[in-house]
User: Which sequence fits this backbone?
């Protein structure tokens, strides 16, 4: 029996929001999972490149995956999970940031996502596939509410 390889990944991503009149919306993305071949609704995130800060990686991933220019408002915390990818056990830590949409200019996507759309924050949490990302979106909702009250 082949020995199970282990790998640790560090990633960063963001919850991008915008205000439309009095409503707050966040950007969600739909991807086809390459391992399970199912569609997942998720937040933009990806690997931190060598020499890159978590913040720079999060902004880059948001721009590449969902095409949105954003600015960081606040850290939202991290999530950690593990999965098996063929013969490798992967432990991934993802650092998330709350991000405000910087402009309506949409950049070309890297092709990883099948669809990107805006969803009212009140319903967006339930649309996310993974519990870890739902918790991050709930933190974003709390942070945005705090920001509005300041």
Assistant:
């Amino acid at each position: 029996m082949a020995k199970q390889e282990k790998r640790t990944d560090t990633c960063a991503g963001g919850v991008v929001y915008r205000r439309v009149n009095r409503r707050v919306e966040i950007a969600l993305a739909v991807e086809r999972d390459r391992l399970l071949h199912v569609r997942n609704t998720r937040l933009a995130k990806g690997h931190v490149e060598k020499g890159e800060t978590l913040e720079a990686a999060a902004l880059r991933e948001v721009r590449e995956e969902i095409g949105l220019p954003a600015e960081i408002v606040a850290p939202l915390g991290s999530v950690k999970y593990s999965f098996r990818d063929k013969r490798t056990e992967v432990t991934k830590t993802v650092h998330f940031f709350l991000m405000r949409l910087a402009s309506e200019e949409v950049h070309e996507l890297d092709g990883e996502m099948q669809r990107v759309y805006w969803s009212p924050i009140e319903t967006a949490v339930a649309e996310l596939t993974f519990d870890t990302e739902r918790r991050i979106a709930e933190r974003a909702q709390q942070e945005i509410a705090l920001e509005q009250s300041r």
Notes: The chain has a mean pLDDT of 89. Strands lie at 5-20, 23-32, 39-42, 44-47, 70-85, 88-101, 115-120. The helical segments are 54-66, 121-127, 131-149.
